[in-house]
Every structure is written in C-alpha cells, then in structure tokens.
Amino acid sequence: MAHSRGQRPAGSSDEADRRGWLALADPTVERAGSGDGAHVAKRDLTLRSPYDHQAHYGHKRDFSWYGYKVHFSETCDEDFPHLITHVVTTDATQTDMEQTQAIHQALDQRGLSPSEHLLDAGYVDAEQVLQSRSRHEIEVIGPVSQNYQWQAKAGEGYDLASFHIDWDKQQATCPQGKESVKWTPGTDQYGHPKIAIRFGLHDCRDCPVRSLCTRSVTAPRILAVRTQAEFEVLQSARQLQQTEAFQARYAQRSGIEGTHAQGVRALGLRRTRYIGLRKTSLQHVLTAAAINLIRLDAFLEGKQTAKTRTSRFAALAPVEIAA
Ligand code: SF4
Predict the structure, then answer these.
(1) Quick check: 20 and 47 in contact, CB under 8 A?
(2) Helix, strand, coil % (nearest 5) of the chain?
(3) Cα separation of 73 and 101, whole Å?
(4) Which of 199, 300, 307 has its CA nearest to residue 254?
(5) Test site for ligand 1: of 149, 159, 160, 204, most ligand atoms within 8 A of the Cβ
(6) Reduced to 3 states, what is the DSSP secondary structure of residue 69?
C-alpha cells in the first residue's frame, strides 16, 4: 500500500468549489447532498478540498496524508522477477481490510489467484482468512491481531485461550472447572456474529482466583467470542505466528516494500499528477506497468534481484555463535 498526495491545481470546478467550501463550514452539507441521507459513509464527511472532492485525509498509525491510497499485489517466486499482478486505488479513508476480498475477487476473475497470499496485518483477520479460503481457495498468510485482553497483556490471569469451549453443547468451562450458564448469540456494532458466554454469579463470586479472571467487583465472567470457525482460526493463527517457520515464510512479504520504494523514488508514486480517483488510478496502473517493464528488462539482462537491505541498527543485533 502506498499513498498519493493530491495536487492543488490553479482551477477547479464550480461544483467542487461549492461542495468543498460548504463542507468546510458544515460537514452535514455532504450528507444532504449525497442523495442517500441514510447511508452516508463517514469518509464522505471528510471532504476538505475545493479542488478534488474525491481526495481525503488518510491516517495510518502516526502517519497522515491527503489524497489516495494504492494497493499493489505482486508475485514473489524465487529466481523470477517479482511482477505486479494487481493494482487498486481507493480514497485515503478506506481501510486495508476493506480491500482484501476485493483484491482476491479481481485476481480470481483474471485467473491470477495465488495459492498463498502474504499480507500485512492490516489486511488480515479471521474472517478474511476464512472468506479467502472458501471463496477463492487462497491461503492468507499474515499476522492476525494479538490478544489484547488485559489478562493476556499482563502475562497472567485467564484470557480467552484459558477456557475450553464445547461448541456442540454451547457451553464453556473455565480453568476452575466451572461451566458457563448462559450462551447468547448476537451481533457486534458492525453486524458481525458474536456470542456472549456467561458464567454463574455464585461460582464467580465465591471463586478463590477471581482477581485473575475479572476486574468486575460483582458481575460474573462473561466471554465474548466470534463464530466457531473464526474463533478456531484466530487461536491457531496466533499460535502459528509465534513460530520460526511462520516468520521465515512471512519474510517474503518484505519484497512489496521494495516495490513501494521503487514506485515512490523512481516513478513519483507519492504524488498524483491528476485530479480525481479515476485518473489517479490510471496513473497507478501505468506506474505498475513501468515497474514490471523495468524488472523484466533487468531479468532479461541477467541482473540479480537485490536482497532486502539490513539496516545498520538491525545489523547490531546479537548473533548466535555456533559452539
Ligand atoms: S471467576 Fe468465574 S469464570 Fe473465572 S475462574 Fe472463577 S469461577 Fe471460573
């Protein structure tokens, strides 16, 4: 994923001017002007430029930019040039996660589906892993989110993985051997299926290790889990990503960072030359085509692909010396 900043040309359309300045003054103007007041995405309210009303502010961790976002997919076979197989440009507010299935769909339609797709954490969660498998037969390789429960962060206490869940009986058993008393299917705020599993009030109130399990003063422990398939994928992925085998396999993904760097440094990817999403998308496709031609040329000339550089800081890491 790379970012393109929108240019600020001398002229702009009257309509974009009007919408831009009105939105600056009152963000609800966009809502009224959309023609679909009930379904205005939050990103539509981030209009900030009178010149390009499709360019928005994007934020990722501590990095912010204004304009668009481009996602590249490329091959990573050893001994062959890494060629870009898909390019998609979105406005800067769309998340990486929103693109995972769209990218797989596009690759599938063109007969370019990989058997494995190495993706960074922003594109991966249990739902994406399952959908990629069932819809496109693509195995997603990428880190899922860590367990952020306070029990897991503290390294002590009973996080979700400490409980046994019997999906057939719709019951969970806690580390103290107590069985849950209530199993309530529902949905989260995004409409995603979720199950609340509640333990007995008396069991938890009299529990000798209560402080390891819940911070509530009086309420019993309640687990929140996703569907069985997502729960199991998430748990096994969290274990797998701790292994050296996963790290070695996932290391291949770093090649895409070189692609972004090549696009930015050699081909001006960071700045769009045009106004609007469609023209910026075209620029990104042409940039990808240029990268492919440069790489094919280097391959035919017999030039070796450069290995990922080890930073000076990383080089200071202690090395294990064989006995
Ligand atoms: S607090 Fe409740 S759920 Fe937690 S270990 Fe004790 S009895 Fe089990």
Answers:
(1) yes
(2) 40, 20, 40
(3) 13
(4) 307
(5) 204
(6) strand
CA of 202 to the centre of ligand 1 (A): 10
Beta strands (DSSP E) in 130-234 are 139-141, 164-166, 171-173, 182-187, 193-198, 222-225
Measure 288 CA to ligand 1 centroid, in angstroms. 55
The rounded Å distance from CA 205 to ligand 1 centre is 8
Separation CA 194–CA 209 (nearest Å):
27
Beta strands at 139-141 and 116-118: parallel, antiparallel or unpaired:
parallel
CA dist., res. 46 & res. 40, Å (int): 11
Residue 222 phi, psi dihedral angles, 5° rounding: -125, 125
CB 194 within 8 A of CB 187: yes
Rounded CA-CA distance 275/9 in Å is: 8
| Rg of the chain, C-alpha, whole Å | 25
pLDDT tens digits for range 43-54: 554 566 788 888
Contacts of 112 (CB under 8 A, 6+ apart): 85, 86
Question: Measured in angstroms, how far is the CA atom of residue 235 from the centroid of ligand 1?
Answer: 21
Residue 79 CA from chain centroid, whole number: 29
pTM, entire model: 0.76
> pLDDT tens digits, residue range 229-265?
999 999 899 999 989 999 999 998 988 988 999 999 9
Q: Where are the domains of the chain?
A: 14-65, 68-144+243-300, 150-229
- Pocket, ligand 1, Cβ cutoff 6 A: 158, 174-176, 178, 199, 203-204, 207, 209-210, 213-214, 220-221
